Amino acid sequence: MQAENRLQVLLQDEALPADLKHIAKKVLDNQRVTFDEGVLLFEKGELGYLGVLANYIREKRHGDKTYFNRNFHIEPTNLCVYDCKFCSYSRLIKQKEEGWEYTMDEMFDMVKKYDDEPVTEVHIVGGVLPQYDVPFYAELFKRIKAHRPELHIKGLTPVEYHYIFKKAKIDYTTGMSMMLEAGLGSIPGGGAEIFHHEIREQIAKDKCTADQWLAIHEEWHKLGARSNATMLYGHIEKYWHRVDHMERLRQLQDKTGGFQTFIPLKFRNKDNQMSHVLETTVVEDLRNYAISRIYLDNFDHIKAYWAMISRNTAQLSLNFGVDDIDGTLDDTTKIYSMAGAEEQNPGMSTKQLVELIKQVGRYPIERDTLYNVITDYNDFEFTEEVKPQFYKLPVIN
What's the mean pLDDT in 246-261? Predict the structure, then answer.
């Protein structure tokens, strides 16, 4: 109710430009903003204005609920046949001494390590190498499901699927059906970067195209399964490139309804080929979250990774459209730390994360991968006897 009142007050502000007031009225009336209006929000929307609109949508959908989950991460390798300019994590095959390549048995041992932990998801994603092919991943997924049937497998980006399906000479429909049969539960949103070809050609030239990325998600959705989507922002793209990216996602979501969550990913410039590019400010990060919430009217959730943007910024983001900040961590991945994220070796207990959410007046909800509620922590009282459980950091999803 307060969010609606703030929006009503905003609409009565005579100093607000007519074009921005028109967009605010569309948000109140649950009308879709256009491409040009999305660009306008980036060009003219001040942080306070965007926060009012995004928070109204967030609270209308989710109230004060803020979601997190328990998962652990397996990265088969950080060696990769692709040479993305923004990536601080991967190494080329010729840099083999700086990387790792896990065997299937080693990865399966990682799964068994968590047998006594109340995790609900294993997140599998990494570099692209020829030996990690369709038979390899199909067998890995089958072994995991046979060992722990209730564990949800969220695995591989379209970049990886495109490569292994091409190598196997099978189409996307066949390939994704094989993965589903093997036990795959959902696919993360990584590899999207920026869809527009003039940017993608400069930062991620060799890997799958935007159309191929979207086509793999579409085939997965046709099977009745869910996935996530990301956007790497704050590097060499212009505002309209961001809107173009979200527009393509919005169109596919209109068609399939298969996306669950959108995750804007902040470009970090440490130790990569784009280290000369300045990173965005916290204000721009919050503006981007807010506009994502406003534009993607057919996405249920907007997620921010606290380990990537810091705990304080994550708290702020909950007033700018974000309703999911992932989980507590014990740094099972190096994706963020290698790129220069604020949190190095990040970790928070359940109690710490719950308090982080409650400090800004939100309700902490533990979820599973598909957003079924596991525990409502809003009225939960921690005692000294409660042993904090640690959630495992998911890679860019």
Answer: 98
**Nearest residue to 295 (alpha-carbon basis) of 353, 251, 235, 232:** 251
User: Tokens representing 95?
Assistant: 């840099």
> Are the beta carbons of 263 and 397 closer than 8 angstroms?
yes
Taking the C-alpha atoms of residue 232 and residue 213, their distance in angstroms, rounded to an integer, is 14
Identify the CA nearest to 251 among candidates 287, 283, 210, 207: 210
Q: What is the mean pLDDT of the chain?
A: 89
Cα four-point dihedral sign 12, 17, 23, 24: negative
The long-range contacts involving 375-381, CB below 8 angstroms and separated by at least 24 positions, are: 377/350, 380/354
- pLDDT for res 350: 78
List, for residues 329-362, the tens digit of each pLDDT value. Answer: 444 444 444 444 455 455 677 788 899 999 999 9
Instruction: Supply the pTM of this predicted model.
Output: 0.91
For residue 294, give both structure tokens: 């406003």
Integer Cα distance of 113 and 141 in angstroms = 16
